[in-house]
Design brief:
The complex is a heterodimer of chains A (412) and B (256). Helices cover 43% and strands 18% of the residues of chain A. Chain A is α/β, with parallel strands linked by helices. In chain A, helix 5 links the parallel strand 5 and strand 6. Chain B has 256 residues and is an alpha/beta fold. Chain B is globular, with a radius of gyration of 16 Å. The model of chain B has no long low-confidence stretch (mean pLDDT 97). Classes of the chains: A alpha/beta (412), B alpha/beta (256).
């Protein structure tokens, strides 16, 4: 088999399994949304199912992924980091896609669907700004109107991406309600959609939300795992022992896991440990959440004893979410995947470690996965293991923030 | 008191129905607001049980919900308070599904019934996901009011009207709760479509803020729900007297 290389044709693997019933992954998932949105979700489900089975749609998407987004992305062997940690580390390089994160994979698919459904306007929520940038990019490419909802706290800490979105022609709405982060951005995007659904597609960025989003976004992201699996077989002659990805809502992780579910690889999702689980300031919704219903799906959420949703905390805006996609909740319940927290400190250390050893500056989100491996190499991950980590995005957006945090003063 | 029975009786008496919404736990005097709106002519009262992430609500009810939560309102406290109110019209709880799911369907339904709350409205629990809650509510004698939206197709509208209990809540515009300058063009059509599908009382709500709007909307249905316009008065320093005056004005317009 020819190794996957940049510029080579993108091969979309066969569709993965559909969730059962009304979007159920085990006891999780579903469609818990205001009545006004039900017809649009039914329309989207039908459009996605038909398109995902159609050669024409898949060819067009594969063409965009290759010639616009720069897929396939490479898998990079990390020699110096491997030496340092005593485990063999491979990185799936989603940071090298156009717009700098895996978000583009799903956005291009959703933009094609939006066009097909005759929707001229797209809206999106964003945490770190990567999904907002990807959506604004696709909207520019397709000539659609775009509005991105972003928590006021995130607008502050991700100023570069805010500017990029505006450059791309998107309107960025700073959301002041609640905790003014990703959860509240989704609330306001849903409120917009309830009013605009007939002309607007809601381009959800993660594997969260009502059916069909968790399924559809996973399918659009499975290209990450399908490619990585083929690439690992070339490089390793088999599957890695451990597959690691960071989990906020969980789209890069589920896309990666989708390629390895039927292998013997251990699947590890790394959640935002924030200031530590005991502090209560974290985003570890699988480790510490309980079943609930928010943003359209039954899943695991951080909540108080009355069922009020709690504010999450993470140094990375993209993991600062008090819930997780329903398929992750199901994978945790069956034990097929395991989920562990990494703290803010460990993520910052991972950010520095990868930069210093490999010349790659990761986004703070996947820096959690690096930080977790640095902590567990020789412990939960035995020396000599072969480990694939999905590097979901690049760290430019976080450079100023980390610089200020490390030096105590802003970059001038 | 049975919600639907009560509303049917009032409708039969030729009275346009008026259901104000009051956020539970919004200040220590919130029960006095409930008593005031009943005294001013409400036919039932919708009691909001505040939730942290109210996606069907605009800024006014978001702010009221957050303020109530900050003042210590919890589902259990709001329900316990409501049990004390002793008014001669039915109460309907309005909240989101997560607090219900968290408490457990049976337990939540029983707590409403024990408090004398006759109905429940859960705007993020559509027909397709309804059964586990609605079955528990039916067993407890709590009437689950379903919402119909302007985008709801006819066959689905029929199923919603058939499964709804108490009344049918016709959403009078595409959007979230909040005051609007004009009644939405969808409002009257929504009322007509629901009325054509059911004999149950049909109330229009969302974006109905003024006496004129209430009169126009009520003409296409059996009555109206008014929330944000009332809550805005409370958020801006108003109390039971202001609530009384506003509902009196609505009542007078509807009865004129």
């Amino acid at each position: 088999m020819t190794p996957l290389q940049r510029g080579a044709a993108v091969l979309l693997g066969p569709p993965g399994p559909e969730p059962l019933g009304l979007g159920r992954f085990g006891e999780f998932g579903g469609r818990f949304i205001p009545e006004a949105l039900v017809p649009a979700l039914e329309e989207l489900e039908v459009a996605f199912r038909a398109s995902w089975a159609s050669t024409e749609f898949r060819d067009e998407l594969a063409g965009l992924l290759a010639n616009y987004a720069g897929r396939p992305t490479p898998v990079t062997e990390c020699r110096r980091l491997s030496e340092r940690l005593g485990v063999r580390v491979l990185l799936k390089r989603e940071d090298l896609t156009h717009t700098g994160s895996h978000k583009i994979n799903s956005v291009l698919g959703q933009a094609l669907l939006a066009r097909q459904m005759g929707k001229q306007r797209v809206i999106a929520e964003t945490g770190a700004g990567q999904h907002g940038v990807a959506t604004a990019t696709a909207a520019a490419l397709f000539g659609m109107q775009c509005m991105v909802f972003m928590g006021a706290v995130d607008v502050e800490r991700q100023a570069l991406n805010v500017w990029r979105m505006r450059l791309l022609g998107a309107e960025v709405v700073s959301v002041e309600s609640g905790s003014a982060t990703l959860k509240d951005a989704i609330n306001d995007a849903l409120r917009d959609w309830v009013a605009s659904v007939e002309s607007t597609h809601y381009c959800i960025g993660s594997v969260v939300g009502p059916h069909p989003y968790p399924w559809m976004v996973r399918e659009f992201q499975r290209v990450v795992g399908d490619e990585a699996r083929a690439q690992c077989r070339d490089l390793l002659g088999g599957d890695p022992d451990v597959v690691v990805a960071c989990v906020g809502g969980g789209s890069n992780a589920i896309g990666t896991f989708a390629g390895f579910l039927d292998t013997d690889a251990r699947l590890v999702g790394v959640e935002a440990g924030g200031l530590g689980l005991e502090s209560g300031q974290h985003g570890a919704s699988i480790t510490r959440g309980v079943p609930g219903v928010l943003h359209g799906a039954r899943s695991l959420y951080l909540q108080d004893e009355d069922g009020q949703i709690l504010e999450a905390h993470s140094v990375s805006a993209g993991l600062d979410y008090p819930g997780v996609g329903p398929e992750h909740a199901a994978l945790a319940a069956t034990g097929r995947a395991e989920y562990h927290p990494a703290t803010d400190e460990e993520a910052i250390a991972g950010f520095q470690l990868l930069a210093a050893t490999e010349g790659i500056v990761p986004a703070l989100e996947p820096a959690h996965a690096i930080g977790w491996l640095a902590r567990e190499a020789g412990h939960a991950v035995p020396h000599g293991s072969e480990v694939l980590i999905t590097l979901s995005g690049r760290g430019d957006k976080d450079a100023a923030y980390v610089a200020e945090r490390l030096t105590g003063e802003p970059l001038s | 008191m049975r919600l639907e029975e009560h509303l049917r009786a009032r409708r039969a008496a030729g009275r346009p129905l008026l259901v104000p919404y009051v956020t539970g736990g919004l200040g220590s005097g919130w029960l006095d607001v409930v008593r005031a709106v009943v005294d001013a002519g409400a036919d039932a009262v919708e009691i909001g049980i505040p939730f942290s992430d109210p996606v069907m609500d605009g800024p006014t009810i978001q702010e009221a919900s957050q303020r109530a939560i900050d003042l210590g309102a919890t589902p259990a406290k709001v329900i316990a308070d409501a049990a004390q109110v002793d008014v001669d019209v039915p109460l309907v709880a309005m909240t989101y599904y997560n607090p219900v799911h968290h408490a457990g369907h049976e337990r939540f339904a029983a707590s409403l019934a024990d408090a004398g709350i006759d109905g429940a409205i859960l705007p993020d629990l559509p027909l397709d996901e309804l059964d586990p809650w609605a079955d528990a509510a039916d067993r407890a004698g709590v009437e689950t009011v379903l919402l119909a939206a302007p985008t709801t197709p006819d066959d689905r509208l029929q199923a919603i009207c058939d499964r709804s209990r108490g009344f049918v809540y016709g959403v009078a515009l595409m959007g979230v709760t909040g005051e609007r300058k004009r009644l939405a063009t969808e409002a009257l059509e929504m009322g007509r479509r629901c009325k054509a599908a059911t004999d149950r009382p049909v109330l229009l709500g969302v974006g109905i803020s003024t006496p004129d709007q209430a009169v126009t909307a009520a003409g296409a249905a059996d009555g109206v729900i008014v929330g944000s316009a009332l809550i805005a008065r409370l958020l801006h320093g108003g109390g039971p007297d202001d609530a009384h005056a506003f509902v009196t004005e609505l009542r007078a317009a509807l009865d004129a």
